TrEMBL record:
The chain crosses the membrane at residues 20-42, 54-73, 80-100, 106-126, 158-179. It is found in: Endomembrane system. Signal peptide: none annotated. Keywords: Cell inner membrane, Cell membrane, Membrane, Translocase, Transmembrane, Transmembrane helix, Transport. InterPro entries: NqrDE/RnfAE. It comes from Metapseudomonas resinovorans (Pseudomonas resinovorans). It is a multi-pass membrane protein. It holds the Pfam family Rnf-Nqr. The lineage of its organism: Bacteria, Pseudomonadati, Pseudomonadota, Gammaproteobacteria, Pseudomonadales. It comes from the Bacteria. This is NADH:quinone oxidoreductase.
Length: 190
């Protein structure tokens, strides 16, 4: 299967799950080790398996890592786990996107995890600031009672569009276009 079959599917869970910074941070904390471990195991899968066996083992490994991440988050931050709901299981998608790359390297998982984590935190921050006009809301879900008074109210009301999925599409598209513009300009200058 070629990478074009998956496209940006690995970013799908960011649309529904990053309406608050704490949710984006929770996804980042879960995605980084999952993608790193998947990236470490991927060259061995590619070396020993091919065709349907490769894809089945990649799917099973990614499902196991997503389930493990969900269980660890449930044990450590139950409220955040409950708020993220089924979105945690969609961590399978970035893993499969990584599996579709032409020649996966051990460090590809780290790169994919860092990029995903950065995008999750950035999108969560932007959506909370623009959509809810606040910052650090519900950080007690992640850090416990010590973070109860951390919410910063930045204005009276936010723009509800950015708290909803269509606003996430707009912001994600803007961030991806900005990234493409910056990387294209850098590549052209070389």
């Amino acid at each position: 299967m070629r990478p074009g079959h998956f496209g940006l599917m690995g970013l799908a869970l960011l649309i529904g799950a990053t309406d608050l910074l704490v949710k984006g941070l929770g996804l980042a904390i879960m995605a980084l080790p999952s993608l790193l471990l998947f990236g470490v195991a991927l060259p061995a899968l590619r070396r020993h398996l091919e065709g349907a066996g490769y894809w089945l083992s990649a799917l099973l490994l990614s499902a196991m890592l997503a389930s493990l991440a969900s269980l660890l988050l449930q044990a450590g931050a139950f409220e955040l786990h409950h708020a993220l709901g089924p979105y945690l299981y969609l961590l399978v998608l970035p893993c499969l996107q990584l599996a579709a790359s032409e020649s996966p390297d051990t460090l590809d998982g780290l790169g994919a995890g860092l990029a995903f984590a950065l995008l999750a935190v950035l999108l969560g921050t932007l959506r909370e600031v623009l959509g809810h006009a606040s910052l650090f809301a519900h950080f007690d879900w992640l850090l416990g009672p010590i973070a109860l008074g951390w919410r910063l109210q930045l204005g009276a009301d936010g723009i509800p569009l950015f708290a909803a999925a269509p606003g996430a599409f707009i912001l994600l598209g803007t961030l991806l276009a900005l990234w493409r513009r910056l990387t294209t300009r850098t590549a052209d200058s070389r």
